[in-house]
Amino acid sequence: MRILYFDIDSLRPDHLGCYGYGRPTSPTIDKIASQGMRFDHYYCADSPCMPSRHGWITGRYGINNGVVTHGGPASQLSIREQLYGGPDDRNQLVQRKLRQNGLETVCFSNFAPRHCATWFSMGWTEYHSPSLHTGSESAEEVNEPVLRWIENNGARDDYFLYINYWDPHRVYNVDQQWFDRMREHPVPGDWPDNAAIRGQQDINGWFTAANLFPNGAKSPTPNMPDTIGTREDFEHMVTGYDAEIAYTDHQIRRVLDALEAQGVLDETVVIISADHGEAMGEHGVYGDHVCADECINKVPLIIHWPGVTTPGSVCEDYLYNVDFVATLIELTGGQIPEFYDGRSFADGMGTGSCKLHDYLVWGHGLYALQRTVRTPRNLMTRTYDNFGYTFDPVELYDMEKDPYQTRNLRDEQPETVNQMDHYLAEWLHEQQAKPYSIPDPLQVEWQERQKGS
What we know:
Blueprint: E1 2-8, H1 27-35, E2 37-43, E3 46-47, H2 49-58, H3 62-65, H4 94-100, E4 104-108, H5 111-115, E5 126-128, H6 139-153, E6 159-165, H7 176-183, H8 194-198, H9 231-261, E7 268-273, E8 279-280, E9 286-288, H10 294-297, E10 301-304, E11 313-320, H11 321-331, E12 360-364, E13 369-374, E14 378-385, E15 394-398, H12 414-432, H13 441-452
Helix pairs in contact: 2-11, 6-9, 7-9
């Protein structure tokens, strides 16, 4: 068994062709999707980078693993350790668990040094930091050691190869040829239009229309405008973002070609996902991730697993990234650790019927402090600290009619708010009743902010 996992930072699924996007951003990823299964409603349990990836390695929500932000007491992983030997088997890190299942685990990522995420680097058979650029390196720089490794080791059996690219994360500074190539294709969709953008000019906070770069700074790259004042500015920024995706897609192709040259690509599992998405005008935020909106916590998941997934299949069920970790462990022959929140959907991988949840709850703790409840129809967010943005304390949206979250229905649909609040309370009670529960780190982060206010 060979498993190849691409973790692409800040990648929105709706900017990929296989998810219906009208620009040629992702021919390689689209081909993988046509060979396997696409997941249409897949979310990180906590955003952004630090909470999401700690959820991924622990199989637990941030409320139970302690990581909901970057830095401070609410970013310290809570994990039961043995005196010697690392984590106990009840909360085994996924990279260690896969090794127990007989796979060598090999990581190429600068996530750990970028965020001082020490636990992330522990337990791999091999952990490679591709450079000292800590997240500002290009996918080509990452691929230099990756391709050397594949040349020497790609034909080996039984490995899990994790590759982390950062390119779609702002700032969008890929070589101009990629920008020019993408500019030849019109930006799909008509939102936000000029009227919507004009209405966002007074929104405070970083990464907003009039403050696209903090402290009034000018854009450091020709691929992004200085501010977002018109639809033309918006299309300029989106073209920069899409160019980054197209460039990353090309680098994925190079890795797949290297495995094909080794004669093992056809029997290799290929997985594409992300840590979180990116706002492109939602709530007046552009090119960053400051809240628990749909566009931030929704991420792509594409799996081509020979002998398991059906070519061109789609799963429309609502799932967490911590569920995928449990699934990965089961599919590699292991037993899911007792202290995992994630639940396996391995039984549905052949058909696309992977229903595990009636609703999801996810959080964000870096900028705004929020928790969101998502059902197939509605999304409700409760804000505990707006971080200076214009979030209402309670927001409710009809996601079928309003996917960009522009019209708060809180006052029009109090019954729906009550039902969503019931789901949130039910979820919180469920977490607090678990034997590995800890004080809610979102509240810990709130208390830390009160000390500094």
